[in-house]
Amino acid sequence: xxxxxxxxxYLGHTTDPVGIKTSRGLAEFxxxxxxxxxxxxxxxxxxxxxxxxxxxxxxxxxRTLVLGVANAGGTMDLPMIAxxxxxxxxxxxxxxxxxxxxxxxxxxxxIANARGLALFDVRDPPANLPVGTGRPRAGRRILxxxxxxxxxxxxxxxxLVDGLRASGQTADFRATGQTGILIAGGGxxxxxxxxxxxxxAIEYLAPARDDGGWDVIEGQGSLxxxxxxxxxxxLLHGAQPEALVLCHDPxxxxxxxxxxxxxPGLAECLAANLQVARLTSPNVRAAGICLNTxxxxxxxxxxxxxxxxxxxxxxxxxxxxxxxxxIIDNLLCHERSKPAPIASR
Amino acid sequence: xxxxxxxxxYLGHTTDPVGIKTSRGLAEFxxxxxxxxxxxxxxxxxxxxxxxxxxxxxxxxxRTLVLGVANAGGTMDLPMIAxxxxxxxxxxxxxxxxxxxxxxxxxxxxIANARGLALFDVRDPPANLPVGTGRPRAGRRILxxxxxxxxxxxxxxxxLVDGLRASGQTADFRATGQTGILIAGGGxxxxxxxxxxxxxAIEYLAPARDDGGWDVIEGQGSLxxxxxxxxxxxLLHGAQPEALVLCHDPxxxxxxxxxxxxxPGLAECLAANLQVARLTSPNVRAAGICLNTxxxxxxxxxxxxxxxxxxxxxxxxxxxxxxxxxIIDNLLCHERSKPAPIASR
Lengths: 345, 345
Fold this sequence. Notes:
The structure is a homodimer. By secondary structure, chain A is an alpha/beta fold.
């Protein structure tokens, strides 16, 4: 995937902060590639980038408009199509992580073709994915799992990769969602894969490795989200993780998109994930907990991390506030006390 | 779906009896629509229908060749494409339940178009499926679940529909696999649905109903099959079943396609399915066990059913050998002892 930078990030008419997570991820992890943000007057959100019209973005050097917004179902509405059209007419490529494909809108395809511009549908999965086997494979894999969608699994995964590298380890981020794929420049959009190939897609994404390096696999959905638990289950089986990191947002009142549904308890959620993971990774263990405490004070955040860590007997942190050193220490300590790994099984 | 009957059933080069389950399902449940079976000399299997060449099938009145074979991954190999081509050239339509689509083979499309014949890809899911919500909906739904793929879930489901009808109930079979869809004339090919829409597809297939009738939903895969457990999980959540029926093949030595992997125990498997189902159906219960005892003597079959029933404290039967009355009685007795149902929630 070679999406020309720099980017103009699209917020559109979005009012829900979680709805712009793809744009926010790029703004945070590839900020040097982002010239500005495009939003309509009814959008109260900002990424702290200069607000630009599409023409201003083009004049500032943007080469691609990234439709970094999300909604349940991944639809593209008419105003969004109109904005994409305006971007093409201003000479920008357009990239999208929505289910509804840019390349499925004939009007956009026609303009892009006429102007020699590209439409990037990040959610098109690779062709010819294999069916998963669950057969033991070499390698050291960590999977982030969550109490819900959008609780910080991608952020935690990226922080764990940085933390492992800072400890002298080789580590790679394995992206499974549109934001992660845009940040990493590759990956598998797991929720767009055909159902029979979910676990196989992860075996493809994080194949056997015997260089001693780690794969940190970005989790998706939640076993406790009735819309998406099938994806989370196949991901656990395909990842064959040696360790799980549980992610949670303590401010979340109910399951995303289904507010009447209560969040699961941390202990219940971790136990369910370990149980499902054991089918392909019998010795899987929990390595830590990552909380997104962005809506709490520092003191509250410390208290929340302390309580959750005590409850589960695991290191607990907010990766962006307090770092992930405690979880990395747990991973590496455990490693030192293990017998020598089998290089290739 | 309107696939012209009668059918010529394809066995091809298949040597594994489970590999012809779609052809066998049609031979058993729509036998009056089947004129014969087509197999190559290296295929040791038969459905007990007259063996016919494609020309003989056409002469006997067959209007469609049904590629009723299955393999992990659902690929169509070159010999199978050659046979499909021969059928078209003999004036037959062709239907297939494989992942690999007939309509994706330009050579077949060209011949079909030239001759005014149709290619039916039963595994194309409906467009615009919704994302599941897990919200409580009216209706009485039974889901068959299994220790593995291909252990008799479809057969059990069809038998339960017949049994409910014989008891004066209204009941409908909700097909989720290619064989079931061919038998029922409709349904959703669940393993071909995009991963984000698995549970939503089942909410679409078996929507709220308040006529007092039952939906018997055909299960797929197994929570203990590492290739397909994601599908089974989403199916449990979308089905929102009031009762599960556990299906098992006591002759199965290891998980289908992964013979080194042991089968789960019945109690372990049932407990895991009930746990997953509770997310959207908190009062779900087990209604019975169906064993496929076709490779055992009558006495052995009775002993196996007795043992499994005793182990789990549930009625246990082989639906084709001993009927499903005990399970139907359990379903209806429980119903009579329940408070009056809420007609619509």
